[in-house]
Amino acid sequence: MAQIYTGPESTERPLSMSRHETSPTTVQPAGNHRPNACCFCWCCCCSCSWNEDRERAWRASRDTKLETIPNCEACLKPTPDEVQGWAQSFDKLMKNPAGRNVFREFLRTEYSEENMLFWLACEELKNECNKHTIDEKARMIYEDYISILSPKEVSLDSRVREVINKKMQEPSTHTFDDAQLQIYTLMHRDSYPRFLNSAIYRALQQSVSRSSSES
C-alpha cells in the first residue's frame, strides 16, 4: 500500500508565534513589470512622497505595531485607473503586482498574510520545470503552509488536505491547485470586502488621485 505523505516527522510542537512575528517566504515577482526608482513596495527604500503617503495610510489602518513587509514584489506605481479597477474585480487586484502588494499589507494587519504568501508560492511553483526543484519547492510549501506544525499554516478543509497528501507522493507543479483555489476563494469572499473599506485602500485612492491631478 502506498504511503501517504504527512510532512516531516517531529516529536515536539514548535513554540507558538504570533503571525506578525513570522518571516514570510521569499517569493519571485509573478508579473513582468519592471521596477523603477519609485517602486511600489513597503520596504521604505526611498524617501519619495509615495512612501510618505503609504506610511500615513499604514499608521491609520491599525493601532497595532507591525513591521513593514519584507520581500514584496517589485513593480511600478499604479495608475488611478488601476487602483479604481481593483474595487471592481478581485481578479484585477490579484493579477496586478502593485495590487497584490497593497492587499498583502492589508492582510498583514489582519494577521492572515500567509494566505497571500501561500498563493504566491503556488504561482512560483507552476513556473518550475526541473523535477528536483519542483520536489524541493513542493516540500517547502507543504512544511510552511500545509503542515499543522507550521505557525503559517493556512486554513484548508480535510478533503483538500487528503488530496495534497496523496499528491505529495509524486509532487508536481499542480500539487496544490485545489488548495490554492480554496485560499483564493477565501481571500475573495472574506478579506477582499474589508480591504475595499479599509483606510489603506482609501488613502491609496486619494494618493494616486492627488498625484495624477498634480502632474
What does this structure look like?
- It comes from Chrysemys picta bellii.
- Its main location: cytoplasm.
- Residues 1-30 are annotated as: Disordered.
- It is a lipid-anchor.
- The structure is a single chain.
- This protein is mostly helical and 215 residues long.
- The chain is 53% helix and 0% strand.
- The chain has helices spanning 49-61, 80-85, 90-95, 97-109, 113-126, 131-146, 158-167, 177-196, 199-214.
- The relative contact order is 0.17.
Could you provide a short overview of the structure?
The chain is mostly helical and 215 residues long. Helix content is 53%, strand content 0%.
Structure class: mainly alpha
| Percent helix range | 40-55%
User: What share of the residues does DSSP label as strand, in percent?
Assistant: under 5%
- Note the gap between the termini: 67 Å
Q: What letter string, H or E per element, gives the SSE order?
A: HHHHHHHHH
Unreliably modeled segments: 10-51, 57-69
- How would you sum up the major sheet? none
Q: Based on CA inertia axes, which overall geometry fits? A: elongated
Q: Rounded to an integer, what's the Rg over CA atoms?
A: 18 Å
Mean pLDDT: 78
**In total, how many beta strands?**
0
Count the DSSP helices: 9
Protein name: Regulator of G-protein signaling 20
Membrane topology: Lipid-anchor
Pfam family, one: RGS
InterPro entries: RGS, RGS_sf, RGS_subdom1/3, RGS_subdomain_2
